[in-house]
Design brief:
Blueprint: H1 4-18, E1 22-28, E2 34-41, E3 52-54, H2 58-66, E4 70-72, H3 86-92, E5 96-104, E6 107-116, H4 124-160, H5 167-186, H6 190-204, H7 218-228, H8 233-240, H9 244-258, H10 263-272
Antiparallel strand pairs: 1-2, 1-6, 2-3, 4-5, 5-6
């Protein structure tokens, strides 16, 4: 199920991109039988807050069951939906409403709504804009799931390589370590970024536990991780979103802190001290 922050952000986007006065949404339960409305923008009452919508019922429930967008021009009178939720919708004063699913792998994880208090149809342009917001949430969730999967694999790898690492295994660990340090810079979720950094530290110590406090800054470690997998300054800069001169500066700083005089000597020293895998 989407994180609360995902839904809150998505609801705000829906309201902005559609120009409609009200937007709201909620996550679908793990069993797919109902969704609960939890996030709102532009509502004037609390009538919809916490409302549980059963799959197949009302507009949102129909979207959950069909995994397809839906809309009504006048909620209270539309013959295509059931009307168990007319009272809270009427109290909020909503007339025309559109809803789109947030679906990953064929499963509807949430529903996003937008509506107006006027009897005006929600047009195709607004519905398409809502679908794009839903697709963006899907992409973010898919990326997060893939990152979580890789983290779990790498946590296992970091433990296994402590026992009897082979040369190919070490190269895989080092490449994964470099990739994760790059991803960690791009992730907006603080909790996920923190976990990525913890896994990076675990991988770094899989060969030799840290013998002293790490004097290197996160960016200096990023650069050394790139050098360790064979990247030149230009490639390291591209992967890290830096200028080549900035990469050189970080590398010089790392050499000074570790008392080394060359790229590979710096990498080997960092490995020996347990700062790189």
């Amino acid at each position: 199920m989407p994180e609360t922050a995902d839904l809150s952000t998505a609801v705000g986007r829906v309201r902005r991109v559609t120009g409609l006065p009200v937007a709201f949404g909620g996550a679908v339960a793990a069993d797919g039988r109902a969704l609960r409305l939890t996030d709102f923008a532009g509502t004037m009452t609390g009538a919809l807050h916490g409302l549980v919508v059963s799959a197949g019922h009302g507009l949102g429930g129909r979207v959950v069951s069909s995994a397809r967008p839906g809309r009504v021009d006048d909620y209270a009178t539309d013959p295509r939906i059931s009307h168990e939720y007319d009272k809270p919708v009427t109290v909020e004063g909503l007339r025309a409403i559109a809803a789109v699913p947030v679906a990953v792998g064929g499963s509807v994880l949430a529903v996003l709504y937008a509506g107006t208090r006027e009897p005006l149809s929600v047009g195709n342009r607004a519905l398409d804009a809502m679908s794009r917001v839903a697709a963006r949430v899907c992409t973010e969730l898919t990326v997060r799931r893939e990152v979580q999967r890789r983290i779990e694999e790498l946590e296992t790898t970091a433990v296994l390589t402590r026992a009897a690492p082979t040369a190919p295994e070490w190269e895989d660990v080092r490449q994964a370590h470099a990739d994760l340090r790059t991803i960690a810079q791009e992730v907006a979720d603080p909790a996920l970024r923190s976990r990525l950094q913890e896994v990076c530290a675990l991988l770094a110590q899989s060969g030799s536990p840290a013998r002293s406090p790490n004097p290197l800054s996160p960016r200096e470690l990023d650069v050394l991780a790139m050098v360790a997998v064979g990247c030149g300054n230009a490639e390291a800069a591209r992967r890290l979103g830096l200028l080549p001169e900035t990469v050189k500066s970080y590398l010089r700083n790392a050499m000074r802190k570790l008392g080394t005089h060359g790229r590979m000597e710096t990498v080997m020293t960092a490995r020996r001290l347990g700062h790189l895998p």
